[in-house]
Specification:
This protein has 1 helix and 6 strands; from the N terminus they run βββαβββ. The chain is mostly beta strands and about 90 residues long. The chain has a domain at about 30-80: Roll (2,3-Dihydroxybiphenyl 1,2-Dioxygenase, domain 1). Strand 4 (about 50-55) and strand 5 (about 60-65) form a beta hairpin. It is globular, with a radius of gyration of 15 Å.
């Protein structure tokens, strides 16, 4: 995770392992939402395709991958608070 002060602003990870087999390299966008599960249900009712149902990543947050009715794909995330041990003073 990348931070500006105490604010999470980005994340980067390697797509390694069987679950990423055959997936081309890409740079997806993730948007912070207050409630991933509620946002997914609203998107579903509006005709979106849920590419990955909400899931948790330990110490990072809750995520989902959505494809809009027009075809664009993005992730939604609900970040967990950053642990005190990772905060830096400015």
């Amino acid at each position: 995770m990348c931070h500006v002060g105490d604010t999470t602003v980005a994340g980067i990870f390697f797509m390694q392992g069987d679950r990423f087999a055959g997936m081309p390299e890409h740079w997806p966008s993730y948007f912070s939402v207050k409630d991933v599960d509620a946002a997914v249900e609203r998107a579903r009712r509006a005709g979106a395709v849920i590419k990955r149902e909400p899931f948790d990543v330990s110490e990072i947050g809750r995520f989902a991958i959505i494809q809009s009715p027009a075809g664009s794909v993005a992730g939604w995330m609900m970040p967990e608070p950053m642990p005190e041990s990772r905060k830096t003073s400015q």
